[in-house]
TrEMBL record:
Compartments, as annotated in UniProt: Membrane
Region entry Disordered, spans: 257-341
Species, as recorded: Streptomyces rapamycinicus
Domain of life per record: Bacteria
Entry protein name: Inositolphosphotransferase Aur1/Ipt1 domain-containing protein
Top-level taxonomy: Bacteria, Bacillati, Actinomycetota, Actinomycetes, Kitasatosporales
InterPro entries associated with the record: Aur1/Ipt1, IPC_Synthase-Related
Keywords, alphabetical: Membrane, Transmembrane, Transmembrane helix
Bilayer topology annotation: Multi-pass membrane protein
Any Pfam family hit: PAP2_3
Composition-biased stretches (Basic and acidic residues): 277-310
Amino acid sequence: MPYTVPRAGAAQGSRPRWWTELPLIAVVYAAYSAGRLLARGDVSTAVDHGLAILHFEQRLNIDFESPLNDLFTTHAVIGIPADFAYASLHYVLTPAILMWLWKRRKASDYRFLRTWLLVSTVIGLIGFTLLPTCPPRLLDASHGFVDTMAQYGSYGWWGGDASAPRGLGGLTNQYAAMPSLHVGWALWCGVALWRHGRSVWAKVGAVGYPLVIALVVMGTANHYFLDAAAGVVTMGLGALLAGPALRLTEALRSRLRPAQEAPVASRNAAVPANVGDKCETSARERERIPRQQGRGADRQRTEGAADDGGRGAGAGAGGRGGPATDGAASTAGDGAPAAAR
């Protein structure tokens, strides 16, 4: 079988390997979690930021979190499912859709959506660091907000520290409210489902899921309306920066590729010179092709028949040559007539 020389860049556009994707996503998520924990800031500063957002919303009459929180705390049939949604879907549905995109969609689509999600998460981390914000549930009770996660804590695994499991509240930053990545990630899921989902239910989920999460984060008093709006803006910035980020990583990869392909070039140096870049076979292999062997045998038989005909014509001409020829034939003995025949 002919040897094929690998071409540079053949792997571009191929589906990323899961053993490279999982560490990348794990590292970014670990940095996101650690950054949230380290960017706690001063509590008084976070409270001041939260009150400033609330007062600004009240002046514009866009403090939708206040009536929603009253509804969730009054009706447990709404508040309990909302708490479960806040504590789980953010961490379950987002990676599930990411895995679905990796397995079912084109590699280029997956790369863009994955990069969009990671870049937006980094932008959100910057927001947590620069603007620590106290969520409505941690404000003074005089502002009228009730922490539904604490109110219905006996129904789930969470405690009084946001959606963290009981006893692990110290491992989360409760003042990482601006922007709301619950809303941002839900919007990302909605866009992915709308663009790549083919069923009617996928389209319904694409529209309904971000809207439900926006209501949940406000009704549970975990975010202000402006936090949710900032989550949408964060995803918009991430979408704009995803393309340049992909081009930057591809440029870095192309710079590193010559060093990686050096061992391949050294192995290709041992390939025989008669093997070309276009996967041509060697001359020796072409000689062993049966059709070419058959053509060579036919050519040899044709040339042999032509030689025999020439010798017969020469003998006929000698017979018409006259007495000298007859004498030579008579002196040749019995063997000459046989040769003439």
